[in-house]
Please model this.
Amino acid sequence: MTTPHETRRLDELAQEIAPARDLWPAIAAQIEADAAPAKARAAARARRSFAPWLPWAVTAGLALVGTGLWWSQRSGSALDPLLAGIGDPALETERQRLAAEVPGLLDALPVEARFGATQSLDAVRSARSQIVAALRRDANDPALREWLRDNQQQEVRVMQAIVDVGTQTRML
Amino acid sequence: MGRVHGLCLRMTRRPDRAEDCTQQAFINAWRALPTFEGRSAFGSWLHRIAVNVVLSQRPVTFEPLPDAGAGEVEHEWSLDTPLEVGAIEAAIDALPPGARDVLILSGIYGYAHTETAAMLGIAEGTCKAQLFRARALLRTALGLEDDR
Model:
């Protein structure tokens, strides 16, 4: 227990001291590096298995358009009000557009590539739900809000990669 | 970010180490995010991770433990003469690490003895004794009268 005087004096000391430099880029780089080996393994699997699975992929891609439509309807649902003020609106629009496009293309990928892509997407979406769950408990926490923005960018990157590879697969 | 960095800076007393510890704390928090159960505020959870990082990077020292009974004694002391914040900061910096850690977490960041002890991995009684010791050393360093 502290005395009123001591408490007052200690409370006068700033609890927040900003670092001299921006620490976020290094933090984001390390988080990205953590995810890199999994992404590299998925990409390697995709490269190895691209040619043998091509005919199957084209057929499967056409056959599973219905799944894609169903997914796109799900992903087009209204944005959670909690998340409305966080992140870049343009990026969020892009995220939703890709989310609508990805399922059909994902199904067009060779099975191993699809497995890797699905794992990446699941990982980033699982992280998103954990961040959102944490935000529901502490909506104004700046670190969580920053992580949600990072996660939004990561999901867009993963989905864009799927779209790029999936589109090439369909063209072949 | 500022609250975590502030804590790291006070515990390490070195800006470069504080920045490293802050970065590592956020990275560790990201990795451990699935384990955050919301039983405590996110800020406290993050602080606990930051304290772990600072302690793990601190060289092991053999600091004499304070008198175990000292923490039981509570007494008033006043601060009649206004003191510069810089003088208080310098006096805190000069405290032995154990006493300083407890004073920072309890006195500046307002954690209860239970929380402070859990963060530092020490017994609650040791935490109280360290706070008593910190206050005594602070009084001496600041040239304050002891009103015991």
